[in-house]
Amino acid sequence: MKDLIYRKIIHDLKKRIFNNEFPSMRLPDERSLTAEYNVSRSSVKRALSSMAQEGIVFKKRGSGTFINPLYLKSQSSFNYEGSNIGITDSLKSNGKKQGIKVLDFSVIPATKSMKTDLFLNDGDFVYKIRRLRLLDEEPIMIETGYIPIKIAPELSKAIVEKSIFNYLEDAKGQQVTRSYMSIQVAPSNQEDQELLGLTANEPVGIMSGIFFMDDGTPFEISNMRIHYRHMNYSTFVSVD
């Protein structure tokens, strides 16, 4: 439960940062945040430390905690941070309305590679979920994911029309906190061109890999094909 509390603080502070609620670029002090969120001081400290490790904020001794301007610099709509990240919360929509169109929601037997990657047994099945992500009705991403039925047997079309990761957190108290992802650019195929509005000579960004829950359980194999204008990958490197 303590883990969930500090992650909720991070989630909310990220939202507030991108809603420009801190124009001075300085966050409230720990005492104020503790009172505001009605949590323990240790939960606030852990949230701020985690955000500092991600490069979202930095601390000035004696001055407070400040938002890293580089975190806000990207004008790309899709900014993947590589930590507890569902796509819904990674879209910096700048006031645009997010949308999801479900292209396929079905059940299929797990393939050999799925069994290996998702730690499944013979006879296990997975959900196949294909979705088109939109901003103001403009298609920006094609998602294809495979989730073991035994992890979330109650999934429905109504649930996958929204954020699956947020559902997992809100309904089951679990979070997807890690991923192993590969990133590349490739020539767009016919489906990319039809669904994302690309021309034959325009590329597509691809992010593919596995998402893991906070207890280390593999949750989803995912492939995301992203309109190149909306893709930016950011990470924070610490040099010791």
TrEMBL record:
Tagged with keyword Zinc: no
Domain HTH gntR-type: 3-70
Any one biological process term the GO annotation gives: negative regulation of DNA-templated transcription
One Pfam family per UniProt: UTRA
Top-level taxon in the UniProt lineage: Bacteria
InterPro entries in the record: Bact_HTH_transcr_reg, Chorismate_lyase_/UTRA_dom_sf, Tscrpt_reg_HTH_GntR, UTRA, WH-like_DNA-bd_sf, WH_DNA-bd_sf
Keyword DNA-binding included in the entry's annotation: yes
PROSITE patterns: HTH_GNTR
Keywords associated with the record: DNA-binding, Transcription, Transcription regulation
GO MF assignments: DNA binding; DNA-binding transcription factor activity
Protein name: UbiC transcription regulator-associated domain protein
Organism annotation: Pediococcus acidilactici DSM 20284
Lineage, highest ranks first: Bacteria, Bacillati, Bacillota, Bacilli, Lactobacillales
